[in-house]
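Appendix B. Raw example, untouched.
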Amino acid sequence: MNKLIHEEVKYDGVRFNVVQKKYLREDGKEIIRDIVNPGDAAVVLAIDENDNVIFERQLREAIGEICLELPAGMVEEGEDPKETARRELEEETGLVAGELEHLISVYPSVGYTSEKIHLYYAKNLTSGTKHLDSTEEIESIERIPLTKCLELAKENYFKNASQNIAILMYYYKYVDGGVNGQNNSNSR
């Protein structure tokens, strides 16, 4: 393991900070790493009673495109990621999850960021109250059949990797074989 010998916050913004860390390797060489710390996030694959996946269409300035995404948001300090998923689903779509199950947690890019994304599956949806944050600009809420989502994921249609991972993980865990090679479609 490399030994941390110095660290300094180089940028402290609204959404993330950047910390420059200096390490001493076992061979005596010093190396510098710039690390982006945005905090953790939760993403929700919400599936309604007709096997439609709930999506949001919204502008993403970082890539200059309007994207079709699953409801998601940042985990607030001291908040459990599962509660973040529940909160974001209602805030952004007006839907409440009757049940919420963890699919997987992933690090999107361990080479430069500490961000961890927690992916959840929501079912037994009921109506709640939609209330967007002042910075959110969701153009529309769309329902796409799960079978179509699988095709889109295989074609890499979704711009955000979280969508592909959530859809394919759900399919692997609950549709195609499930746990121990048995189909768990009754659990949906």
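End of appendix B.
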